[in-house]
Write a structure and sequence with these properties.
The complex is a heterodimer of chains A (114) and B (243). By secondary structure, chain A is mainly α. Helices cover 88% and strands 0% of the residues of chain A. Chain A has one domain. In chain A, helix 1 runs antiparallel to helix 2 and helix 2 runs antiparallel to helix 4. Chain B is built from seven helices and seven strands; from the N terminus they run E-H-E-E-H-E-H-E-H-E-H-H-E-H. Chain B is an alpha/beta fold and 243 residues long. Chain B has a domain of 169 residues: Spore Coat Polysaccharide Biosynthesis Protein SpsA, Chain A (Alpha-Beta Complex), CATH 3.90.550. Classes of the chains: A mainly alpha (114), B alpha/beta (243). Chains A and B meet through helix 4 of A and strand 3 and helix 2 of B.
C-alpha cells in the first residue's frame, strides 16, 4: 500500500510537469523528497537507526521528523526560487523604466524639432 | 509647469508616489517657480488608480510601475535615469506635499560647494503628531536613528528617515550599486556614511499633513525594523570579512 501511495504521488508530479504546471527544475526537490520519504517509510531498520541516532524513543516518530525536515527544506528551496524571481523582476522593471523614460524623451525631442 | 530644461546637466527632481497624486501639480508648479534648470520625474509605485498623465506637462517624465515595488526600486529608477542623462544632481521629495520645495536650492547649494555628496533635509518638527500610529512611527524613527548612529560611528545625520534628500552623481553612482529596500532612507544614510560619501544636513520645517494620517501600521513597522536589522547585520558581517 505504501508503494502504491508513493507511486500515485510520483505520477501526480509527473502529470504536473507534463502539463507545464510545474517546472522540471522545481519538481526535482519534490521528487527527491518523495524518494527519501518512500525509502524511510518502507525501511524499518533505517527508521530504527535514525530514531536511535536522534534520540527518539518511539521510532515511527522519526518518519514525522524526516517529513518535517523535508518540508522545511522544500519551503526554503521555494523561497530561494521566489527571491531569485523577485530580483529578476526588479531588474526587468528598472530596464522597462529606462526604456519608457527614453521613449518619452525622444518624443519630447521630436516635438521640439517639429 | 516646468519647461523642458535646456541646460546640459540639469537637476533631476524625483517624486515617488503611491496613491497620492493630489499635490503633484502643486509640486510641479513650485519647482517651476524656483526658476532653475530642473527636470521633474514622477514614479508611480503602482497606485490603485493610475495618475492622469494628461494633467501633467509633457516636460515631466513619468513612469508607472506595474505593481507596488517599494521606494527602493523607485529610487533606483531615478538614479538610473539621472546617471544615463548625466544630471548633475538628484533631489528626492515626497508626493504628499509635506516637503518644502522652496528649500531645494538650499540643499543644492550645499552640494555645489563640493563639500558634501549627500544632503539630508533634517526635519526640525519630525516628532510631531499624536495617536498610536504617530507614537509607533516615532519609536521606529528613534530606534533607526540610534542604530544608524552606532553603525556609522556617530557620522549619520540626525534625521535618518527624511525623504527630502539631494545626491550628487557620485552618491547616486555609489548608492545605485546596492539593493535599496522598500523604505530606504536609513539604509541610504548608513551606506553613504560607511562608503565614504560626505553627508551634510540642512534643517527644514516639514509642512503638516494636509489629509489622512501616517500609513505606518504596526505590521509595517515590524517589517521595517526587521529589514533594517538584517541590513545592519549584513553590514557588520561584511566589515568583519574585510578586516
Amino acid at each position: 500500500m505504501k508503494l502504491v501511495v508513493i507511486l500515485v504521488l510520483a505520477l501526480v508530479l509527473l502529470f504536473l510537469v507534463r502539463r507545464n504546471l510545474l517546472q522540471v527544475d522545481l519538481s526535482f526537490p519534490l521528487f527527491a523528497g518523495l524518494v527519501i520519504l518512500g525509502f524511510a517509510s518502507m525501511n524499518e531498520a533505517f527508521i530504527e537507526w535514525t530514531a536511535a541516532s536522534l534520540g527518539i524513543v518511539y521510532p515511527p516518530i522519526a518518519i514525522i521528523f524526516i517529513a518535517i525536515a523535508i518540508l522545511l527544506a522544500l519551503i526554503t528551496i521555494l523561497a530561494i526560487a521566489y527571491s531569485r524571481l523577485r530580483s529578476r523582476q526588479q531588474l526587468l522593471v528598472r530596464q522597462l523604466a529606462r526604456m519608457e523614460l527614453e521613449r518619452q524623451e525622444m518624443a519630447r525631442q521630436t516635438s521640439v524639432h517639429e | 509647469m516646468p519647461q523642458l530644461s535646456t541646460a546640459a546637466n540639469p537637476v533631476l527632481v524625483f517624486v515617488p508616489t503611491y496613491n497620492d497624486d493630489e499635490f503633484l501639480a502643486a509640486i510641479a508648479a513650485a519647482i517651476e517657480d524656483l526658476g532653475g534648470d530642473f527636470e521633474l520625474l514622477i514614479v508611480d509605485d503602482g497606485s490603485a488608480v493610475a495618475i492622469d498623465v494628461g494633467d501633467l506637462d509633457p516636460a515631466v517624465s513619468y513612469f508607472r510601475l506595474p505593481g507596488n515595488f517599494g521606494l527602493g526600486i523607485c529610487t533606483h529608477i531615478a538614479f538610473d535615469h539621472a546617471l544615463r542623462k548625466r544630471h548633475r544632481a538628484v533631489v528626492r521629495i515626497d508626493a504628499d506635499g509635506q516637503h518644502p520645495v522652496e528649500r531645494i536650492p538650499d540643499l543644492l547649494a550645499v552640494l555645489e560647494t563640493g563639500q558634501a555628496d549627500l544632503v539630508v533635509g533634517t526635519r526640525s518638527n519630525r516628532h510631531q503628531g499624536s495617536g498610536l500610529r504617530a507614537l509607533t512611527a516615532q519609536w521606529v524613527r528613534i530606534y533607526l536613528s540610534l542604530v544608524t548612529k552606532l553603525l556609522t560611528g556617530g557620522r549619520s545625520p540626525q534625521d535618518v528617515n527624511s525623504g527630502f534628500l539631494a545626491f550628487n552623481r557620485k552618491a547616486a553612482e555609489v548608492l545605485n550599486g546596492y539593493q535599496l529596500e522598500r523604505y530606504p532612507e536609513p539604509q541610504i544614510c548608513a551606506l553613504a556614511c560607511r562608503r565614504g560619501l560626505r553627508v551634510a544636513e540642512v534643517t527644514i520645517e516639514q509642512e503638516p499633513r494636509r489629509h489622512g494620517s501616517s500609513t505606518l501600521t504596526l505590521g509595517q513597522a515590524l517589517r521595517i525594523l526587521y529589514r533594517f536589522n538584517i541590513f545592519v547585520l549584513a553590514e557588520l558581517l561584511q566589515k568583519s570579512r574585510v578586516e
